[in-house]
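EI: anyone free to look at a 147-residue chain?
SC: sure, send it
EI:
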Amino acid sequence: MRPNEIMSDANSIVRERQLVIRREIDRRGIALKAVALDSNLPYTTILSYFPGEKDKTPATIPASAIFAICEGDALPADLISLLLPNGWLAVKAPETIDHDELCTLAEEYVTKKTAAHRLDSECGRDIGPNEDASLTATVVQLRAAAA
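SC: here you go
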């Protein structure tokens, strides 16, 4: 595979994930205007990265825009993590340890883990891919809170 083909594949993957992020933004009720304001990026630019039309190809989001979105806390870290390769997660490291937050996250993990083993869960008693992603995100938050 030539270097141009690798970059083309990476761009395609990122664009697909940007569409996934848009669907999740809509599902969570996150206002794109708020994302634009918090990131200090123009609304039309945010729309170009996360278009709502199914047949529209998003503009590949540059590192500078990801930086601005992170800097402004414009999107949750789990959504930003979708732009990264599998196995990588974006985590905001705390300046201090909040033991109450750490306790809440630990309880959240146990609750999610218990629910993932219910017979009526995604894959029955086995942990399904969405449950695994949710549990992994919680572990990352636990690690960040304890750092």
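EI: The chain has a mean pLDDT of 89.
SC: 👍
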